[in-house]
Specification:
metal-binding; binds protoporphyrin IX containing FE; Cytochrome p450; monooxygenase activity; monooxygenase; two-stranded antiparallel sheet; 6 strands; 14 helices
């Protein structure tokens, strides 16, 4: 994570140009394409739903960031990116990232020094990160030189470079598309796994949402972005997915730039501060029965504040939130329109989450079937060929 300062501001501005509310809408066709592939995968192999979610998130991000048309199975770019995510999740779940942030000198300690195993860990995964970022970037450059590069964030950024571009500007064309995968894929997968878990645990919510979708599509087509304003209950369900188990329960750690006093406590400059997003989203006085998955809480005349805080706040608020919301929306409405999600043999999955910066429901099994023959035919019929 870059410290606050001019370089961070420039990076954030560059990111914003590709992921603000307006530009993010340009990615909707790519998101829908990945969702349709997800539906097909769920139809063919429902037990592997978790893997299909990873593939979907990978497809969305690699196509937006690099214009990569990922293979339906065994795509090498997705495989490398998944290895990186695995490494990131190991590092964050062991609190190494935080440890390193607090004590960066650990990197310079000899291997026998307590805590210095982080150096060994980092040395294992840094080359993988490098290959994840460096390889697709080189491919885009080569494709641009041949005049056959599809539109992508990387292509747009490379084309903006000229002979006067600084080292930092060149680095940014690599950093931004790579960063999108690092922060975007895992978070999207986590929210969608939470969605599956909630649907198995709260079947009456699932039924209500499906009834609303059917009332708009008559069950004769799959929903698309033009239906977005028509869904009220589904909208509330998605807010509840984000609130019920926030993807990053303690946000991303921040460091104080100057001394501060909060509630009478003196906090010196340089202290690390965490935002307890989980506590904000489980405040009894604002969200009664906070542990219950209850979309109706958003449908009263004076609803609670929307769960914006799950994306952080202030000058470091999540920059991918517009795109993330669209991907999650497209996946959830289409899954609800097409599939029945149930516990296996009436045994509800356990609501157990991993720790780490990004938190996931631990592995669970589901019984996922098409809602009808018509739903299965729609899934088959509308998949874009990749
Ligand atoms: C459900 C999905 C997501 C959730 C819940 C989420 C949540 C968060 C949170 C809590 C932060 C820390 C904000 C803070 O410190 O106040 C963050 C930062 C960030 N997110 Fe997301 N995120 C999601 C998806 C994405 C996606 C898809 C992208 C990229 C397209 C993205 C890009 C970023 C970036 C670039 C930052 C760092 C901002 C900075 O430090 O300046 N996120 N996200």
């Amino acid at each position: 994570m870059l410290p606050y300062g001019d370089r961070w501001r420039r990076l954030r501005r560059a990111f914003h140009a590709h992921f603000d509310a307006t530009t993010s809408k340009e990615y909707r066709p790519l998101e829908m394409q990945a969702v349709q592939r997800l539906l097909r995968n769920l139809l063919e192999n429902p037990d592997n739903f978790s893997q299909h979610l990873k593939h979907m998130a990978g497809q969305v991000i690699l196509s937006i960031a690099y214009g990569i048309d990922v293979r339906p199975e065994g795509d090498p770019h997705v495989a490398v990116a998944e290895a990186v995510l695995e490494a990131v999740s190991v590092v964050s779940s062991n609190s190494w990232a935080m440890l390193l942030d607090m004590m960066p000198w650990l990197l310079y300690m000899p291997g026998w020094f307590p805590g210095a195993s982080i150096k060994h860990e980092a040395s294992k995964w840094l080359p993988i990160v490098d290959s994840m970022i460096g390889k697709p970037h080189a491919e885009v450059k080569a494709a641009l030189a041949d005049g056959r590069a599809p539109p992508s964030v990387a292509a747009k950024m490379i084309l903006q470079l000229d002979e006067n571009s600084s080292e930092e500007e060149i680095w940014t064309t690599k950093a931004i598309p790579g960063f999108v995968y690092l922060v975007g894929a895992d978070t999207t997968v986590s929210s969608l796994r939470t969605f599956f878990l909630a649907m198995a645990l709260y079947p009456e919510v699932q039924r209500k949402a499906q009834a609303e979708i059917d009332s708009i599509t008559s069950g004769s087509r799959l929903p698309d972005f033009s239906d977005m304003a028509s869904f009220t209950y589904v909208d509330a369900l998605i807010k509840e997915v984000l609130r019920w188990h926030p993807v990053a329960p303690l946000g991303i750690p921040r460091r104080l730039m100057e001394d501060d006093i909060y509630n009478g406590y003196f906090i010196p400059a340089g202290s690390m501060v965490m935002s307890n997003i989980w506590a904000i989203m489980h405040d009894h006085s604002i969200y009664p029965e906070p542990n219950r998955f209850y979309p109706e809480r958003w449908l009263v005349p004076d609803p609670p504040p929307s769960p914006e805080a799950v994306f952080g706040h202030g000058r470091r608020i999540c920059q991918g939130r517009f795109m993330a919301r669209d991907s999650i929306w497209a996946a959830i409405v289409n899954i609800l329109a097409s599939f029945e999600i149930k516990s296996v043999n009436g045994n509800p999955p356990k609501e157990v989450y991993t720790s780490g910066i990004v938190s996931y429901p631990e592995a669970f099994e589901l019984d996922i079937r098409p809602r009808s023959d018509v739903a299965a035919a729609l899934v088959h019929g509308t998949v874009f060929e990749c």
